[in-house]
Amino acid sequence: MEDATRRLADGRRDARFEELLGETERWLEAAERIGSAGRPHVLAALAAREEARTSEAETRAAEGWARAEAELEGAGRRLEREDLEDATARGDRATLLYRRATRSARRDQFLGAAIQARAAAMNAGASELAPSAFAAGEAQLASGEADIADNAATDGPARAGEAALAAFSRAHHIAALFDSVRRREVSVERLIDEHEADLARLAEAADVEALHSNPGETTARIAGEISRLRADNERLGIELAGERARASEFDTRVATLEARLSEFERRFTGARDELLAVREREARLREVQGLFTPAEGEVLLSGDRLVLRLFGLTFEPSRAEIDEALYPLLTKVQRVITTFPGATLRIEGHTDSQGGTRGNQSLSQRRAIAVREHLLARVPIPSSRVEATGLGEERPIASNETEDGRARNRRIEIVLTLPGS
């Protein structure tokens, strides 16, 4: 197709031009035939892959995702050879691996914060000092785990995770208050005064009168006002849904007419442009992957996101200053950024589990900011397109029980969202 396009641009619409078009058509027909015959054999794997991708398994369960991708790629190679039996077996293995990655990612997404809150509550002695709240958290966490195992809808484990987080946080808070009272750092009278002040602020926000002598009545008034506002909100939501439905119907009719009008042109130009874009992107990706040694980092591509996972970008303990010895590695990162102009960047700082959670988050944030400032000083990219965030110990990619695992978890990840994908 490329050769034919160049000949057409040069005005050489000769026999060779017609021959090239014929070859293009034959190759496309062969690809369509193999695709049509092979797709049923990997359909389940493709569906499981989409579910895993939606669950962010490529980042939240990176190892499992990579294994599933390798199996699916192997199935694709077997399809090209029209070895449907082996392709089916590999597709089945890929399906299983994608589903496992999905469960792992959903557990991290919906229950990760609650699991961390549980550990903190346990350390504070909340299981004994606030048994009811702690037990409520355990029950919600178990419910979330069961929903994920049963592949329940998203709202189930999400609600369970939020409820478990709230219960464990409450248990932790109660244990902390108990400890403060026991140490005589705070009195019971002061706690009651603070509660009444909070209730008064809520009453003021709800525009109801607070009765200091009757906290229960004040709470009831606030609840009544909230119920009224919710009813108004539901009514407005129903009206808005109706308007949106009418607008959607109109948009659908317009889109249908436009699609029919441009169908022929889109099929021809779309296939050509997609082929060219894929080849260009693959070439740039191969170039980027060849820049980094295994000790420096690895390059991951998922959809429109290119992830530079940099193990070699290290810092002194508890420090966020970039050593000059790391400049050559950062120069490679600069080359990647210039290879994909127009991409937006998110620089993520990660730590191992050593030290406190809050301190790790702060340290990872400062390191991410240091890398951001270094790159902005050397790459002509608007600062508005470069974000720095610290994730602390929240997203390990290896076990924190070994030094090698902790070393892999102490990393900088640079996520490029590629334009035009």
Question: Based on CA inertia axes, which overall geometry fits?
Answer: globular
Sequence of secondary-structure elements: HHHHHHHHHHEEHEHEHE
Q: Describe the strand arrangement of the main beta sheet, using strand numbers.
A: 1-2-5-3-4
Could you list the spans in which at least 5 consecutive residues all have pLDDT below 50?
Answer: none
Write a structural description.
There is one protein chain. Helix 2 (15-54) packs antiparallel against helix 4 (62-80), helix 5 (84-123) runs parallel beside helix 8 and helix 9 (188-205) packs across helix 10 (215-289). The protein has 13 helices and five strands. The chain has helices at 2-9, 15-54, 57-60, 62-80, 84-123, 126-129, 131-149, 155-182, 188-205, 215-289, 327-339, 357-376, 403-409, and strands spanning 297-302, 305-310, 344-350, 386-392, 411-417. It is an alpha+beta fold. The chain has three domains: 2-104, no CATH class; 115-211, no CATH class; 290-417, 2-Layer Sandwich (60s Ribosomal Protein L30, Chain: A), CATH 3.30.1330.
Short description:
With 421 residues, the protein is of the alpha+beta class.
